[in-house]
Amino acid sequence: MAANGPNHLLPTHRKPSFPISVDLRGYLRRYKRERELPLTYDRLRAFHEVIPLTDDAGRPTLWDTVIYDASEMPALNEALKEVYAWLKVAGDLSVVGHLYVDRVDFCTFGNSTPFRIRIVNAYNDNQDYFYVKKADSSRVYGLELEHLLSPNRLNFITHGNTLVEEHVAGIPGDIFIQHWLGQRPELKPIRVAKELVKFNERCFIRLLGDMRSYNFVFVFTPDFEEAQLRIRAMDFDQQSFDGRKNFYRPQFFKDNSPLVRFCTKHLRPETAHQYEREEQTLILQRASLASERLGLLLHDMAHDPISPPEKVRTLREGLAEYYDRTDYLRCESMGALIRQNLESIRRDIGRPVVPELVPE
């Protein structure tokens, strides 16, 4: 990761929502991401009262708890439990009988205007969350690319215009910067810096944009000697939409400047390059293991108009200059640009890249 400082890099305007295409729907069915569910996003919109939700300190949040008609609640609760069962245990209702829906929250912030459902275990009060959102093809591509090319596995389900996502647990990036960065002796600075370099590279190669600090989390794992860290994206709304190259590099967002300064303070350029290469190698290994599936996904993505042509042209010119490869200038879609990114790092490392697949 270069030592360039972040700038004011923000979305130029609200990203439109793109419907799931016929080809993408076929892909989702093939890999059991699409299935019939007893509940839709539109059904959850039929609430009749909202109560502002505050945090533990009594401060307002971006969420409201929603209230439904009393006659609707029993059926709605059962439907939400069934959705959770499909998300977690392939629809096995026999193991979720002791769970109950404790709360349904709604957020009007952002493009997806999600519902967050809190599920509680009646025996031990353990709680979990999942989200119900409006289905958007760019978000679905983002979730699937995260599943295939990152070290993280993601469960999600689509049903028509409804998207169900599991909760990504971790410390939100803005909270980590405020309360953890440089303040916890159990966190070695080099671990933080290393993971930021790797996360920056993952986002750039698979073209996941807008990774400001509140759009990713830190996962903290105690180890036998030193604690381990991993940064995980939790918002995939800006997958392959923007035309600016640096929009896909978390280091260039103002919100992330404390992290970038911390990184450049503790890493030599040679070490940062080593960590970039490590992540590139891992990405190619993941791409090779999921070769057929990734090839089908990028094929569908290449034929899906999830970004205006002018943004594709701007981005391909920026990437062609960055990688010094004129092959980018022939790309006509975001899917083709991701394939070229994989080819660019393959050229440097010498590993097989995702094959060209043309599904029947």
Bin the strand percentage: 15-25%
Mean pLDDT across all amino acids: 91
Q: Approximately how much helix is present in the residues?
A: 25-40%
Q: Termini distance?
A: 40 Å
Cα shape: globular
The low-confidence runs, each spanning 5 or more residues with pLDDT under 50, are: 356-360
Reported for the largest beta sheet, the result is: 7 strands, antiparallel
By helix and strand content, what is the structural category?
alpha+beta
How many beta-strand segments? 10
Specify Rg, calculated over alpha carbons.
21 Å
Provide the domain count. 2
- H/E series: HHEEHEEEHEEEHHEEHHHHH
Number of helical runs? 11
Strand order across the largest sheet? 1-2-3-4-5-7-6
Helix-strand layout with pairing:
Elements: H1 22-30, H2 41-44, E1 49-54, E2 60-67, H3 73-89, E3 99-107, E4 115-121, E5 127-134, H4 137-149, E6 156-159, E7 162-166, E8 171-172, H5 173-179, H6 189-206, E9 216-221, E10 228-233, H7 257-266, H8 269-289, H9 291-302, H10 309-323, H11 334-349
Antiparallel strand pairs: 1-2, 2-3, 3-4, 4-5, 5-7, 6-7, 8-9, 9-10
